[in-house]
């Protein structure tokens, strides 16, 4: 017997239609690239996204074409995002932090037709244009008055394109499994690979992420996605905020502590999300300026492990709840968040912190397990490490154009490349990327955990732990540290600080101080580069 419910395709345009109909007056506030703060409503966003779709149609863009963006989080980026998807085309967000050669590679691989860009990224477009023959034109997301001098050919002015259109446009009704978005992984090994989101996966993922134990957005929330739209859908907030009717605050390109704080306060933000480095910047600003957070209720920290100091300071000094989240581009991207269960709520603070600092538990639509190298499932005892596998309707089943071949196992699971434990409450904890684990005397040392304790030292700005070869133990950890400006700390002081906070045999064999630690385009430490750099470093424990 068949169910007799309506066949209502899960298209992302239904999300914006919902916001227009039910929350037309709700504000969308942006710090523009030109400078001033811009504000309008979901009704305005809806109308202009339709104009954008019409303008694209006039430019010859059709269903399935790929349209790229090089842009910060602003209302214009949202309009292009929904305009492109509403035309049945595919919005390819390019990460401007990638190397020029990587951007050229992905623009060609994706066969981008047009590139919509912020003023700040004109130099990138100029640097790639000659080598990107599929790009027919460049749309500068500004008005005529701000159009710059550029050597780019086929340059269009975004505001002029929109001014020539009206809002009467029917979203193109594509299949819910049609591609809506394209985002390349940062490609720490080999070329970046394209992750293709469908309308259906985006809608389901945004609903999952918005359940009460994860983001739990409501119409009374004011939400600021600091995590960029080019960093895997801004962790679904560009869908889940309009879905919930929450006020949306887009920070543009200014992500320093002071600028972030100003928007948080001016726009009465209640929920925000970003990688740890942004939070370290904000906390530093709060401490040096003596400013407070008067409306913020919860902060989502993800993309890299949340340092203990970030959680402690937000929660204890500012009364803001921290949700530690984990995910990856291939997962749309969220997979877990660390909201306590009733048992944890009643536990002593120290125990709570320990569990909240884990990457957290999954929400409905994400299935997760850990397995050994033979693929056998391992127990959820919080101690046993294994390869972390995931599956679900918003998890990739292949990369664009089949790069990387078959990526799922027989049971449809995707190997995340992370090594993790899962505790009896379902809280997953990442030990390391599989390729970064440190094997010492047959046991694993979690570089992430050591790093997170090290950045808790008041003089440490950033820390990285890598394994160096050791004749007796296979590998032993080396701690690489950047000191905070004007601060001093010695190796002995750092080791004393770590003592008692991590297992004895996890203690680094040596500490080196550097002025720079290499990062990927999504802000993760490039361990491979560090291992290369220190491959000849002699550990004092090697005689
Ligand atoms: P994203 O775009 O979500 O940052 P990427 O695909 O660039 O994701 O990288 C995903 C990887 O980032 C994960 O497999 C994991 O190794 C790491 N990562 C993401 N969030 C966390 C976290 N909270 N703690 C530790 N590692 C994390």
Q: Care to give the gist of this entry?
A:
The protein is α/β, with parallel strands linked by helices. Among the domains are: 1-212, Rossmann fold; 436-533, GMP Synthetase, Chain A, domain 3, CATH 3.30.300.30. Helix 15 links the parallel strand 24 (474-483) and strand 25 (510-514).
Strand order of the largest sheet: 2-1-11-10-12-13-14-15-16
Which percent range fits the helix content? 25-40%
Rounded mean pLDDT is 95
Bound molecules: adenosine-5'-diphosphate
CATH fold name of the domain at 1-212, please?
A: Rossmann fold
CATH architectural category of the domain at 1-212: 3-Layer(aba) Sandwich
Largest sheet: 9 strands, mixed
Catalogue the unreliable spans.
none
Measured by DSSP, the beta-strand proportion falls in: 15-25%
Verbal overview:
- The chain has 543 residues and is of the alpha/beta class.
- The termini are far apart.
- Among the domains are: 1-212, 3-Layer(aba) Sandwich (Rossmann fold); 436-533, GMP Synthetase, Chain A, domain 3 (2-Layer Sandwich).
- Residues 185-186, 231-232, 302-305, 324-329, 333, 359, 416-418, 430, 433, 448, 522, 524 line the site of adenosine-5'-diphosphate (ADP).
- Residues 185-186, 231-232, 302-305, 324-329, 333, 359, 416-418, 430, 433, 448, 522, 524 line the site of adenosine-5'-diphosphate.
């Amino acid at each position: 017997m068949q169910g007799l419910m309506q066949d209502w395709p899960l298209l992302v345009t239904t999300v914006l239609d919902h916001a227009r109909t039910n929350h037309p007056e709700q504000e969308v506030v942006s710090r523009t690239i030109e400078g001033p703060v811009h504000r309008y409503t979901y009704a305005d966003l809806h109308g202009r996204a339709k104009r954008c779709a019409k303008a694209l149609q006039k430019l010859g863009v059709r269903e399935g074409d790929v349209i790229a963006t090089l842009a910060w989080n602003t209302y214009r980026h949202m309009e292009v995002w929904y305009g492109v998807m509403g035309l049945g085309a595919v919005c390819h967000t390019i990460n401007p932090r990638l190397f020029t050669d990587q951007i050229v590679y992905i623009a060609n691989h994706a066969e981008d037709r047009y590139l919509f860009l912020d003023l700040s990224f004109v130099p990138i477009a100029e640097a790639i244009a000659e080598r990107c023959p599929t790009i027919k034109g460049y749309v500068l997301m500004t008005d005529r008055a701000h159009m710059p001098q550029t050597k780019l050919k086929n340059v269009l002015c975004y505001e002029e394109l929109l001014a020539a259109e009206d809002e009467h446009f029917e979203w193109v009704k594509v299949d819910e499994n049609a591609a809506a978005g394209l985002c390349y992984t940062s490609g720490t090994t080999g070329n970046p690979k394209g992750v293709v989101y469908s309308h259906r996966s985006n809608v389901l993922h945004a609903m999952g992420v918005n359940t009460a134990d994860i983001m739990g957005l409501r119409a009374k929330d004011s939400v600021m996605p600091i995590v960029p739209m080019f960093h895997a859908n801004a962790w679904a907030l560009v869908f889940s905020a309009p879905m919930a009717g929450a006020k949306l605050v887009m920070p543009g390109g200014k992500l320093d502590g002071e600028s972030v704080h100003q928007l948080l306060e001016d726009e009465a933000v209640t929920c925000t999300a970003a990688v740890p480095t942004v939070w370290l910047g904000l906390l530093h600003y709060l401490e040096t300026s003596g400013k407070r957070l008067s409306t913020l209720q919860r902060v989502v920290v993800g993309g890299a492990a949340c340092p203990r100091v970030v959680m402690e300071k937000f929660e204890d000094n500012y009364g803001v709840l921290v949700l530690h989240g984990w995910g990856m581009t291939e997962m749309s991207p969220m997979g877990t968040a660390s909201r306590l269960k009733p048992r944890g709520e009643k536990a002593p603070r120290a125990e709570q912190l320990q569990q909240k600092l884990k990457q957290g538990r999954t929400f409905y639509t994400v299935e997760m397990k850990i397995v050994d190298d033979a693929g056998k499932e391992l127990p959820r005892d919080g101690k046993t490490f294994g390869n972390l596998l995931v599956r679900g309707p918003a998890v990739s089943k292949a990369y664009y154009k089949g790069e990387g071949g078959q990526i799922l196992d027989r049971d449809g699971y995707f190997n995340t490349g992370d090594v993790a434990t899962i505790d009896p409450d379902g809280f997953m904890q990442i030990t390391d990327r599989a390729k970064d684990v440190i094997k010492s005397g047959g046991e694993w040392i979690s570089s992430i955990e050591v790093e997170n304790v090290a950045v808790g030292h008041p003089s440490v700005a950033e820390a990285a732990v890598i394994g160096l070869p050791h004749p007796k133990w296979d590998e032993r950890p080396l701690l690489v540290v950047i000191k905070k400006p004007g601060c001093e700390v010695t190796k002995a002081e750092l080791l004393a600080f770590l003592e008692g906070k991590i297992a004895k045999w996890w203690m680094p064999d040596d500490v080196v101080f550097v002025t720079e630690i290499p990062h990927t385009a999504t802000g993760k430490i490039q361990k491979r580069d560090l291992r290369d750099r220190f491959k000849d470093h002699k550990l004092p424990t090697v005689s």
